[in-house]
Amino acid sequence: MASSVPNIPSYKRQRVRKACVPCRERKRKCNGKSPCEMCISYGYVCHYMDKDRSSSSSFPVQKLDELPHAPESKPFAASNIHGNEVSSVDTQTVTNQSITDPVKSRYTIQHSAVAFPRCLGLELRSANPPRLHSFAWHCGIRPEENPSSHVLLSELITKEEYYRVSKVYFSVVHPIFDVVDPKQLAKNVEEYWAGNISNFEYGAVIAGVVALGSFFLGSIGHPREMDVVQYAKGILDDPTFSRIPTVEHVSAWVLRTIYLRATSRPHVAWLASCVTIHLSEAIGLHQDIDKGEFSMTSGVTLRRTAGFNEHTKRLFWCAWSINTILSYDYGRSSVALNRITCKPVEETEGSYTIHLVALAQTIPQGTVNTDLTQLLNALTAIHKSPNAHPFLLLTKCDICLSLYRRLRLLNHVLDKSVVLQIIDIGNAALSAAYALVKLGQSWWNVLSTSFQYVCVLLAIDTPESLSHVAAAMKTLDNITEVLGTHIALEAQKTAKLLLEDSMKKKRQEIQQLEQATHDRSTFENTNSLDIDWDALFDPSGTLGFM
What we know:
Elements: H1 10-15, H2 21-26, H3 37-42, E1 81-82, E2 85-86, H4 91-95, E3 98-101, E4 106-109, H5 116-123, H6 159-172, H7 182-193, H8 200-215, H9 225-237, H10 239-242, H11 247-263, H12 266-282, E5 293-297, E6 300-303, H13 306-330, H14 353-361, H15 372-384, H16 390-409, H17 416-438, H18 445-460, H19 463-466, H20 469-483, H21 486-527, H22 533-536, H23 539-545
Antiparallel strand pairs: 1-2, 3-4, 5-6
Helix pairs in contact: 6-8, 8-9, 8-11, 9-11, 11-12, 11-13, 12-13, 13-14, 14-16, 15-16, 15-17, 16-17, 16-18, 17-18, 17-20, 18-20, 18-21, 20-21
């Protein structure tokens, strides 16, 4: 265990020929770097004497690390700016320098109002620089809200019931949304029911696992599922707990977002996904701070070990993927973070999170009016992505149909190859949807994807698309029969109505064509009559006829 902690060899101290000013004044060991490790640890402004200024940095270095990928060879110093002349330093890197408070697990940027007093104190070489705090954020006329009363989760569900329900969660949900460490969760569950862990934040995580496990049990779910859901909601909505966000807050919000996406209106789920991203930013999950510290529970700070670092990466990218895909499908803006440097997740056996993130990354980002080429390229990338899991097949189709709807608004006439790509993705999704329904895994898109696919086939309105409408409607009917819910019956009725309207439109078009054919035949028949015009206009003949 001792070998896993990097130790600084003693000979490094012996080779140092100079020490920074803060270390000299405080008589501390200095390793001669710029900034030195002591200044980084204590948040001092690391600087050297004037003769060594060229190798020093006067930029305030906070207790937590700089953002990764920042060029170490170009430190930001006051001497770099002279009047209107600005050095070639990366402006984006300088303005995005980050600060993280490991005690409160709070992340912010150097130029924020919360961080500026501390940065100023460090620049002024204050013996006691101001802490990272929201000084004068408001006038303090009213006190903050008092915490609400919450029961313990153990009063709603027994430990044995938890294990029964959690098996379903880890077999259905966890392979896709890998946001909970199973070993750590099992350990904390034992301590939670033993009374050793009384914090409500971790109870919200357990409640999220219980709620989703119970949901995928269907009709045999836990009888107090809604009470468990309300318990988690009460914890997450309590502002007294969100004052100091934790990793567990983000995990619980991800689980709640998934549950809301499967059970509630799109606006509610979208709001929850946005809150999750904002909480991730609040504790710096979107940044790759290898030596950073994160608060797992209130008052307990854990340093990012290799396993914990991988867990936080999966947590952030899951939250980001949910928000990105849901927003794109719903037609709302996703949360745009200033700079994401979190490293990609690693591929793990039995986990499909990496494929979920890859699908979300195919969605065009950063533009309101997406270019036509971007949409077509994204559609091609979606078509080429692997079919790793039935749920991911449905997610592929969701993104594909979202791309088509945007192409349709651009009045773009699809090539036959593009139409065949959409049909290929849609047909695979139909098979996956019916297979999941028969297994009792009622993901939200087993119904929504099937319904939207029928709508898109009718909208494309080509022989290639219309030839698949019958099979798509049949699958939708089968899924509706299995589900038997009001929303399923409503979707089935709407799809049939759209199909009838499409047929009605086709009949009207045929009638218009037949009318043109009828008018043509009448005109031709009139011209073919053998009329003796001389006899008709002869007065004697007319009189005789009369």
